[in-house]
Amino acid sequence: MRFQNSVFVDLLKPIDRRAFGQIVARHKGDAYDKSFKSWDHLVVLIAAQLGGETSLRSLEAAFNANSGSHYHLGVRRIARSTLAEANARRPVGVFADLFARLSCELDRRTRRDGAELLRLIDSTPIPLSKFHDFARSNGRIHGMKMHVVYDPGIDRPFCVEVTPANVNDVEIGKKTPIEAGATYVFDKGYYDFKWWRGIHEAGALFVSRPKSNTRLADVAEREMPQTRGEGYTVLRDCEVKLASKGDSKLRMRLRRLHIRRDALKDGKPQEIVVITNDMTRSAVEIAALYKARWAIELLFRWIKQHLNIRKFLGENENAVRLQLIAAMIAFVLLRIAAHRHDIELAHLRFSELAGRFLFERRPIDRLERPPPKYQAARRRISPRQLELAYA
C-alpha cells in the first residue's frame, strides 16, 4: 500500500530543517532546553494554533494522543511543565527568523510579474488579562501590539513585530525596510515628516491621511477626468505644500485629495482627506489605494478569529511573543500549502479542515472529500453459489 503522509507533515514541508538548525544555532535556541528542542517546540505551538488548543493541559493531551504521528514529525511526547519552561526561556528570534524565511518562500510561490508593489502597514491590539503583569496600557487597551507589513495582492505578511501596547506605531514603521518602486499605505498613526521624506528619497511612494492640524497650502488644482470609484467619489485633487515651520522636513511635491465615501456614518456621508507624493496615478486610483488598506484589517480579523491568539499558553512576555509569532507561521504555512497543492477552497474552510484532520494520513488537496472505501474484490466460484453479505 502506498505510504501517505499526515496533513501536518505536508504542512511543515516548506520548513528547511537544515536552515532552521542554523537559525537555532545562531540564537542558541537549545542552550537551556536540551531535551525539548526548538523543533519540538515549534511543531507543538503550530499544532496548538491549527488545533485550537487553549491551555497547556489540553495541548498536552491532544498532542500525546496522536503519538503514532510523532515519528514522522521528528518529535516526541510532551509534558506541559517542560513546554511552560520552554515558553518562558526560548529566544523569540528563533521563531521570528523562521517566519521571515517562510514569508520569502510564500513570495517566491505567489509572485506575479508586472504586479504593483503595494505594502500596507498597520498594527492590531492584543488585549491581555490582569494576570499578565508585564503588559502596558496605552489608554485604550492593556496588553501588546502586533505590527505587520502586508501585501494584499499575494496575501503575504512581510514583517511582524510584537511590542508593548504603549509603543507608538510610527517608531516601528521607521524600522521597515523601504523598497524602491513600492507604494506604502498607512493611517494617521504613522504621521512623521522625516519618515515620509525617507520613503520619498528611497524612490518609494506613500499614501496616508494628514492630521487635522497639518497646515497645507494649495499650489495648483489638478484636473480629474474621472471622479467616481467603487464606493467613493473624489471631490477635489490639488497639489499642495507644507505651510509651517516644518516645511524643511517635507520638501517634495505633494497631493491632497478630498474623498467622500458612499457609506454613511451617523446618517451622514463621510469625507476624508488623503495625502500622497504620487504625482502619476489618477485621483481615483489614489483613493482606491487608500481603500485597499482595509485588507490588512481583514487579515487581523481572520487571524484573531481562526488562530489561537485570544488565550495564551503562558503568563510571561516571552510566551505571549512566541505564541503570536507561531500564529503567523501557521498562517504562512497554510497559504504556502494552498498554493503548492492548487487548493481552491476558501481560506477559512481550508484552515478548518486542516485543523480537523491534522494528524490523519490523507492527501492535503482532498481534505473536503470523504476517504475512499476499501472494498475487496469479490469472486464467486459458481453463479449458483449463495453469497453471505451484510445488509
Distance between the termini: 28 Å
Percent strand equals 15-25%
Number of strands: 11
Task: Characterize the main sheet.
Answer: 11 strands, mixed
Write down the overall geometry. globular
Strand-helix topology:
Layout: H1 7-12, H2 17-27, H3 38-51, H4 56-64, H5 70-73, H6 80-89, H7 92-110, E1 118-127, E2 136-137, E3 142-151, E4 156-164, H8 169-173, E5 183-185, H9 193-201, E6 205-208, E7 216-221, E8 228-229, E9 232-242, E10 254-265, E11 268-276, H10 283-291, H11 294-306, H12 317-340, H13 347-356
Parallel strand pairs: 1-5, 5-6
Antiparallel strand pairs: 1-3, 2-3, 3-4, 6-11, 7-9, 8-9, 9-10, 10-11
InterPro entries: DUF4372, RNaseH-like_sf, Transpos_IS4, Transposase_11
Protein name: IS4 family transposase
GO molecular function: DNA binding; transposase activity
Question: How would you portray this structure in words?
Answer:
With 391 residues, the protein is an alpha+beta fold. The protein has a domain at 7-93 and 311-357. It is built from 13 helices and eleven strands. The chain has helices spanning 7-12, 17-27, 38-51, 56-64, 70-73, 80-89, 92-110, 169-173, 193-201, 283-291, 294-306, 317-340, 347-356, and strands at 118-127, 136-137, 142-151, 156-164, 183-185, 205-208, 216-221, 228-229, 232-242, 254-265, 268-276. Strands 1, 2, 3, 4, 5, 6, 7, 8, 9, 10 and 11 form an eleven-stranded mixed sheet that branches. Strand 8 and strand 9 form a beta hairpin. The longest helix is centred in the C-terminal third of the chain and has 24 residues, at 317-340. The radius of gyration is 26 Å and the shape is globular.
